[in-house]
Every structure is written in C-alpha cells, then in structure tokens.
Write a structure and sequence with these properties.
Layout (H helix, E strand, L loop, with lengths): L1 H16 L3 H14 L3 H18 L2 H18 L12 H15 L9 H11 L4 H14 L3 H15 L20 E6 L8 E6 L1 H14 L9 H14 L4 H11 L4 H18 L3 H10 L5 E10 L9 H15 L6 E10 L5 E12 L2 H10 L10 H7 L2 E11 L5 H10 L26 E4 L19 E2 L10 E4 L4 E5 L3 E6 L11 E6 L2 E6 L4 E7 L10 E4 L4 E6 L4 H4 L26 E2 L5 H49 L7 H7 L9
Parallel strand pairs: 8-17
Antiparallel strand pairs: 1-2, 3-5, 3-6, 4-5, 7-9, 10-11, 11-16, 12-13, 13-14, 15-16
C-alpha cells in the first residue's frame, strides 16, 4: 500500500508539472481513498487539492464538475436528462458560464468553486446537490425544461419536513446540504465580503422558477409558474436577496389578476412544502386516520375594485378569519379574488377562502355558528372602510379522508410535470435555443501550453491597447484544438510555434518556405509536412526568420501592413483575424492588443497625435483654472462690497457669512 501511495505521489507531481491539473486532481482523489485512515489524512489531502484547484481555470473547474455529473449518471446515482440535453462541449461551456456568474460578485482570491471542487475530490456530493449543479448547468445551456426537472428532483431529495433538511453546519462553508457564495456586501470596510449560504430546498425552488422564466423568445416561458416558485423560495430563505430581487422582477411583468393567482397558489404551495401538509396528513394518519377538516367560505363586499384588496387588506382579512376560527393566520388561505355580477347587474368584490383546521371539527362547527355575525363585532372596521359593507357571506365544513397513498400523491402533484410519468423512459431532445460556443476550434494558452483563465469580456467587444511592450501582460497564444501549433501577433509581427516535431530532428532537417502569401514547414529528414497553408494576409519574406531549439520551431513572420499606407492612424488594420486563410477565426477581444512595434511612420504619427492631445488638454486645464480663479476673485469682491454697503447703511459690522444667513439669496431654480 505504501509503495502504491508513493507511486501516486510521483504521478501527481508529474501531472502537476505538465499542467494537467484535472488528472492530478483525479489522482489525488484515488490516492485518498486508498489510504487506511482517511480521517487522519483528510486535512493534509484537503490542503493539497486546494492548492491544485487554486491553479485551475474556471474552464478546468467546469470540465471537472461535468465529468463528475456524467459519472453520477453512469452509476445511476442521478437520472440521465429526460427532457433536454446538449453536447459535452456545450455542457462545459454552460458550467463555465455558471461559475463565472457565481464568482461575479466575489473576489479572485475567494473562489467558491475552487473550494467546492477541492471538497468534491475527497467527499462525493449528495444526489440533491448533484441535481442542483446540473440544473445550474442546464440553465446556462438554455435547457429550461430540464432545469425544472432537475430542480424538482432535488426538492424531492430534500424531503417534506419543516426545513429539517435545509440546515447547514456553520463550520463548513460547503457542506453536502448547501453551498456558500462570496458576495461584496460591505464595500470600503476592512471585511467587505461575506458568505451567503444557498440551502438546497430553497435553491431548488429558485432554480425551478428560473426554468419557468426561461427567456422572452423561448416557448417554455411561464411567468406565472415562475413567480409561484420564486415566492416559495423567498419564504423558505428570507435572507437571500437574490430570490427576492428575481421575484420582484417577474412580478413587475404581471398584471393584477396574474399576481392574485400567484399569491394564492404560492400560499397554498407553501403550506404544502414549508408548513408541511404531508406532515399534517402523516400526523392524522398516525391518529387512527382521523379525517381532516377545512372551512370553505365566501365573502362578497360592496365595492367592485380588485385594486382595493391589496397586501394590507389581505393581511387584515386573514387575521380576522383566523381570530374567529381560533387558528393561526398561516392556516387561512385566500383562494381567489374576483368581480362578480348578480341578477340585478350589481358588481361586487368576491373573496373565497379556506381555513385548515386539521382533525378539529369542533372548531369548524363553532365558526360556522357565529359566521353569520362575522364583521359585525368591529374586528373588520378598517377593512370595511376600504371594501365597503359585506353584502353576502357563506361557509361550510368539508372533511378530507386520509388514504394510505395521499402523502405521496400530494408530493408528486407538486413536484412532477403532469404529462410525464416518474418511471417513463424519454429520449432527451435538443433545446429550441442554442448556447454560443466561443471556442469551438481553438483555445488560449500560455507559452508553456498551460490554459489561460478566460477574461470577462466587455459587452461591446472592447479590448485594451498597449503601445509600450512593457505594459503588456503574459504572452497569450492561439492554439487549435489538435495542438499542432500556436501563434500570436503584434502590430508588425506574427510569431508561430510549430509543435509535435519528431524527436531527433535537427535544424538542418527542417525546411521553412516563405512566400508573400503562404507558409510551408517540411521535415525533410522524416518526410513530413509539418505545417502549410495560404496566409490570411501578406508578409515580407525577406524580413521573416525562424529558429529551432531542438523541440519547438519558432517562426517570425513580418507583416506587410499595406493597409496602413492608406490609413496610417487606423492601427486596428494590422490585426490578423486568422493565421491561415482557411484556418480558425479568432475573436477581436480575446487578448489585449500589442501595438508597440508599429511601423515607424504610423508610430511617429501616433506620438505626434498624443503630443497634440496632451497640449490641448493642458491648454484646456489652464483655461479652466484661470476661469475658476476669476470666478473666485469676483465672488470675493462681491462679498466685500456686500459688507461695506451694510456698514454705510448704518448697520454694525457683520461678516458676509452671518449676513447671508440672515438674508439668504434666493435661487431661481430652487425658489
């Protein structure tokens, strides 16, 4: 065993040196589970894998999580996608987008997913957390139907009791029952960041709401159902402002009738999911299956406006009904609010309600006996002032028989779509919308081949420009997915590194052929065409050179830059969008621009333009300073004149500040 662990240590060191961090993390995980006493070695392994994850880019973190989710599907720990699915490349891109969004409010030194992946390598995540992670991934992949399915599966994994499964230990920021998010809560303070815990049950309802929200152009959008789910999420986790802000945003798109439906249904679903109607059913079943009782009632008011029945009126009515029925306000459900027209064409506001009594039928009889006098005892004085007098009231008691499968039926009706059986085998389809894959045919790497942390791009595709090479960051190269070569550019030069040259090849065995419009690299000694093609733009062959160090062939192509002769100030014309005419096209804002080696005539014009701009700014600054000084001098003269005039009029000497306080000057704009 010790020999095996020593081999793993050497293997991990080699993988880390080769920048193969994902494989190094997998090796750490395998090595950890081979140890005899995992409890003693956990802290040591956690520190080691945390160091690895800190070096991983967000794309590598996303790739690792996707591989874990795929492994969970193959092992049957979670169900494979049944509604919608995408390719592995799209999954990795979607998970990257989710991690990028998750880290947006945090700080580079506080990367929550690095800690999450480090723990994931040593302790497998729970199935509910796996469903939640997959729902987050599918949300970015625009698979909104699958988001709903996975969120519902996670909610079912949480159980149905009153929040007992929504707890998270304070000592572990990434327990299997939740995940922490670092946010910038107190900017400008010594501790500006704080941890916000996402509990799985509320998080599941939140993701289900986002699945129903979808996008405006998506056929899966259902704002009413989205608002209902988000309403439940806000009640389950009232401290999470993301849930509240998302709910408020959706509510702003609904009318009064839709909002009334949302509030009524959300309250009913909250009773089922949070307050535990299944728990009430289980309690009643334990007591010899006593039937549950509820009151179904109706109130009709004199006024005929839905707008009058706002949040305050709703709260007042629920409290009044709860007091009369001797129950808590949470047991009262406002079922519907509508405008009705009677036989005499009179319009009235009608409110139907339910009062859940549990197995206590005696309370229901007592309420019905005195319901005819409801509203006459002064309890609803404020409510009647806004809604008018009660013109009609009715109420009845209904009993619900408890069946053996009723608990399961209630839960399934809440958490499963109506048209899909939980045991059905359905082939997942492509979503109606497709995610944009920016790096299908190439990747960004450093000179040693290690992956580059993808930058958060500007929404208008803007990129930084450097006219001094010392200001540029680390060299970034464009490399095709096959890894055969990589290239980068500046204003006057394109550098190409040809990789995978056969071992033992010497410089004399290589032939590099330059033409103004093409490049060809031939390994004469091996009879291999290493690289060839028509260039995307023209070069100067006589000024292009190459160098070989025994492993990598480096080629320096000197750009012709004929476009600068027509527009010497338009430096962006020096940029190549591709190395070869038929090769992969790079994005404009992939990397910063290096214009430090512009042709002399363009650089001279640029420097002259910068000098003129600096001089213009200096003149404008001097003029502004002189203007401010003149205004200040004139203001001082006006104040001194104000004081002298007051003395000449026989008043005691008073400075201008006190004089202004006594007689303030009126402002024409403020009155």
């Amino acid at each position: 065993m010790e020999t095996s662990l020593r081999c793993f240590t050497n293997h991990i060191s080699a993988l880390r040196g080769l920048k193969q961090l994902n494989r190094a993390l997998e090796a750490y995980s395998t090595s950890y589970f081979l140890t005899k006493d995992t409890s003693r070695s956990y802290d040591e392994y956690k520190a080691a894998v945390t160091d690895i994850t800190r070096l991983m880019t967000r794309e590598q973190l996303a790739e690792y999580i996707v591989s874990v989710l795929n492994d969970y599907e193959l092992k049957g720990l979670i169900q494979p996608p049944r509604e919608q699915n995408v390719s592995d490349n799209e999954k990795r891109e979607a998970m990257f987008c989710h991690i990028r969004e998750w880290h947006r409010e945090g700080h580079k030194s506080q990367r929550d997913y690095c800690t999450f992946v480090a723990k994931l390598a040593l302790k497998p995540m729970s199935t509910k957390l796996a469903y939640l992670q997959r729902a987050c991934m599918y949300k970015e992949a625009l698979c909104f139907k699958q988001v709903v399915m996975d969120a519902q599966a996670a909610i079912k994994q949480c159980g149905s009791k009153n929040g007992t499964t929504d707890s998270i230990s304070s000592g572990d920021e990434h327990s299997e029952d939740g995940m922490a998010k670092t946010i910038l809560a107190n900017p400008g303070t010594p501790n500006p960041f704080e941890k916000r815990t996402f509990l799985p049950r509320a998080w599941g309802w939140f993701l289900q709401g986002l699945g129903f929200k979808a996008t405006k152009i998506s056929e899966e959008q259902d704002l009413i159902r989205a608002a209902k789910c988000l309403k439940i999420a806000t009640k389950l986790d009232q401290n999470n402002i993301e849930y509240r802000s998302e709910f408020d945003e959706i509510c702003s798109q609904l009318n009064h009738i839709q909002m009334n439906e949302v509030l009524n249904d959300a309250n009913e679903q909250t009773l089922i999911s949070e307050l535990g109607l299944p728990a009430i059913l289980a309690e009643a079943a334990a007591e010899n299956k006593k039937p549950l009782c509820r009151i179904l009632g109706c109130l009709r008011f004199e006024r005929d406006s839905l707008a009058l029945f706002g949040a305050d009126a709703r709260k007042s009515l629920k409290e009044s009904l709860a007091a009369s029925a001797e129950v808590e306000a949470r047991d009262v459900l406002i079922e519907s609010v509508s405008i009705v027209v009677d036989k005499e064409s009179t319009r009235n506001l009608q409110i139907t309600f339910q009062i859940h009594l549990g197995p206590q039928r005696a309370k229901g009889k007592k309420f019905c006996d005195k319901f005819s006098r409801f509203g006459d005892d002064g309890i609803m004085t404020n409510l009647k002032l806004s809604l008018g007098a009660i013109v009609h009231k009715s109420g009845s008691i209904e009993e619900i028989d408890i069946g053996d499968d009723m608990i399961e039926t209630v839960e399934q009706s809440m958490l499963l779509p109506d048209d899909i059986s939980p045991t059905a085998v359905v082939e997942a389809a492509r979503p109606s919308l497709e995610i944009d894959l920016p790096y299908r045919s190439y990747v960004l790497v450093y000179s040693d081949g290690s992956a580059v942390e993808r930058v958060d791009k500007h929404p208008f595709c803007m990129s930084r420009v450097h006219y001094d090479h010392s200001d540029t960051a680390q060299d970034v190269w464009f490399q095709p997915t096959d890894g055969s070569y990589r290239w980068q550019q500046s204003a006057s030069e394109v550098r190409v590194e040809v990789l995978r040259i056969a071992p033992g090849t010497v410089a004399a065995g290589l032939d590099v052929i330059f033409t103004p419009s093409s490049l060809q690299v031939i390994n004469v000694s091996k009879g291999i065409n290493q690289l060839s093609g028509d260039l995307a733009s023209l070069i100067v062959p006589d000024d292009s050179v190459w160098d070989y160090d025994g492993e990598v062939l480096t080629i320096y192509l000197h750009k012709a830059n004929l476009e600068l002769y027509a527009a010497p100030a338009c430096h962006s014309l020096t940029e190549w969008k591709a190395l070869f005419a038929d090769g992969f096209q790079i994005k404009w804002d992939d990397v910063a621009k290096d214009y430090s080696d512009l042709p002399r005539h363009s650089m001279d014009l640029f420097k002259q333009s910068e000098i003129e701009k600096d001089e213009t700014r200096r003149i404008a600054s001097d003029a502004e300073s002189l203007r401010d000084k003149t205004v200040e001098t004139d203001e001082l003269r006006r104040r001194e004149r104000q004081v002298r005039l007051a003395v000449l009029r026989g008043s005691d000497y008073v400075d201008w500040i006190e004089m202004t306080r006594r007689s303030p000057v009126s402002d024409s704009f403020t009155g």
